[in-house]
């Protein structure tokens, strides 16, 4: 495949951007593979937890699956902690940003706020208010976020749970990432800074995460 010839954007041509966009489409289509590759980085160190973050992610997704929830939510469960190694102080932002172009905004909100909602189960041990999530009681994603944390995420530290292997979830992840980013809005090949953006603010604390 060809490549653009400009050395600065203000000298670029339509042909240059057609070339870049063709490259981007290929890159975009391979996103799910790269995301799953990154999930493997959570293997190994337990960080004091009973199981490592990789096993925790598989278990959270398996528990969601076993509850009969929709595929998009299962993929959210699989990837919700994927940012743990890159952004340990605000990891939920990473998963929310990665999935945001492909999923329901309410599920983006759910992932973005799962740290705070999960805190219902441990914040008291840090002298923090376990009921802090009640500030969002009237939010349309409150119920799903509470369910996500209470029924699947916070329970997913059992070494004996029959989690599915990653391969089981691969087709699901591929289907989600094959959706048109942002429903087909502005070209994904747009230069950095031009991407569609802006979602709701984040509420999080920076103690422990799961
Ligand atoms: Fe988690």
TrEMBL record:
Signal peptide range in chain numbering: none
Record-annotated HD/PDEase domain positions: 49-164
SUPFAM superfamilies from the UniProt entry: HD-domain/PDEase-like (SSF109604)
Positions of region (Disordered): 180-210
Any Pfam family hit: HD
Source superkingdom: Bacteria
CDD domains the record matches: HDc
Stretches of the chain forming a coiled coil according to its record: none
Family annotation (SMART domains): HDc
InterPro entries assigned to the protein according to its UniProt record, in alphabetical order: HD/PDEase_dom, HD_domain, OP_Dioxygenase
PANTHER family on file: HD DOMAIN-CONTAINING PROTEIN, PTHR40202
Record protein name field: HD domain-containing protein
Organism: Modicisalibacter zincidurans
């Amino acid at each position: 495949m060809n490549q653009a010839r400009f050395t600065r954007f203000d000298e670029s041509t339509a042909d240059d951007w057609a070339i870049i966009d063709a490259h981007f489409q290929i890159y975009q289509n391979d996103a799910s593979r790269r995301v799953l590759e990154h999930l493997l980085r959570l293997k190994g160190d337990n960080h004091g937890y009973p199981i490592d973050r990789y096993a925790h992610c598989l278990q959270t997704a398996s528990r969601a699956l076993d509850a009969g929830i929709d595929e998009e939510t299962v993929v959210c469960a699989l990837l919700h902690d994927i940012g743990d190694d890159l952004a340990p102080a605000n990891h939920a932002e990473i998963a929310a940003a990665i999935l945001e172009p492909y999923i329901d905004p309410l599920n983006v909100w759910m992932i973005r706020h799962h740290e705070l909602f999960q805190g219902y189960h441990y914040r008291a041990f840090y002298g923090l208010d376990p009921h802090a999530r009640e500030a969002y009681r009237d939010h349309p994603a409150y119920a799903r976020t509470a369910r996500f944390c209470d029924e699947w995420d916070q329970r997913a530290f059992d070494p004996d749970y029959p989690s599915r292997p990653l391969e089981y979830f691969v087709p699901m992840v591929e289907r989600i990432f094959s959706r048109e980013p942002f429903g087909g809005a502005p070209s994904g090949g747009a230069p950095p800074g031009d991407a569609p953006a802006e979602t709701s603010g984040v509420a999080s604390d920076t103690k422990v995460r799961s």
